[in-house]
Design a protein that fits this description.
This protein is an alpha/beta fold and 377 residues long. It has 13 helices and 14 strands. The chain binds pyridoxal-5'-phosphate (PLP).
Length: 377
Amino acid sequence: MIPVNEPLLGERELQYTHECIRSGWISSTGRFVEEFENSWAAYCGRRHGVAVCNGTAALQLAVAGLELQPGDEVIMPAFTIISCATAVLAVGAVPVLVDCDPRTWTMDVDQVADRITPRTRAVMPVHIYGHPVDLDPILALAQEHDLAVIEDAAEAHGAEYLCGRARGDGTWRRCGGFGTASCFSFYANKIVTTGEGGMVLTNDAALARRYHALRNLCFGTESRFRHEGLGFNFRMTNLQAAVGVAQVERIAETLERKRWMGREYTRRLRDVPHLQVPVEEPWARNVYWMYGVLIGSEVGASAGQVAAVMREKGVDTRPFFLGLHEQPALVQRGLFHEERYPVTERLSRQGLYLPSSATLTEDQSRHVGEVLREVVS
Ligand SMILES: Cc1ncc(COP(=O)(O)O)c(C=O)c1O
């Protein structure tokens, strides 16, 4: 079976984790946590990094640091992981949705302005499957309405966005370097992985201090067990961070392989009838975290049926997200009553992603391409 993902790991990861074991520094104390925070923040063009135990915790920390009030609103795409909504619900705030763009599958930035109310406090753009959100309009709205921007770059390590293109002098900057704070997951299927892991980045020193405190139970500074705030234990271990440091060192190679994988699939699949493949807008550098495809309704089979046949032929796939407005756990809380997001609904029913490892070989890519072509033709 060709897996959807396998991590790219090597000698450096072994060497650094051995160092943790030999030295005994296996908890969240040890040189690698800070080194990983610094190297990842620098790579993304940010000043401060706060490593945590997973991407869901990163979102929760990022939102908790904003000190929202119950009933405050955060605008986010309907097409994303449930962690975006749970982070907002955890502080008593309300997720407010927009649909996604039918080409890039990222949040439809033209819908954001209409969703702003006097209770709106933040916008949460989520880069999807490696393609950046069109951030300029969001950053402009955020400035105009004094909103925080929490960028979810879990799926877009190393992706780039051409900001300021409307002025004609745009500059390419890495995703994860925009807005108030940005969040990452380093789960095993991510471009940079620590097995499980996450990070929040920000340029704001005061916010970074708050994140540090919240990550570690808000231990007292003068008297350790006297807590002035309610925090979490979201600490990352030195062992995880050791893997992360090695992963950042190899990111250029990983990205090169990912972009090769994306180009290969697109070359093989772009002429398959009734199949929509990922785009790369002129203002974006897609890192193809996962290579998603949309099966046209003309094919007469759902994405699930296509996935089942591909599995029989040795190709593993995964379905796309179910929209937040269709999540039973959220609808049962009275959220998103009768709201419809047609693009998200189409994606969730007709999308699946193909084996997308950085380790994918040419033979595997050919096999996947042939199987998919045969199944949908
Ligand atoms: C966009 C996005 N945000 C956040 C997360 C949550 O990350 P984690 O699985 O590390 O909790 C994911 C998980 O894949 C994700 O895709």
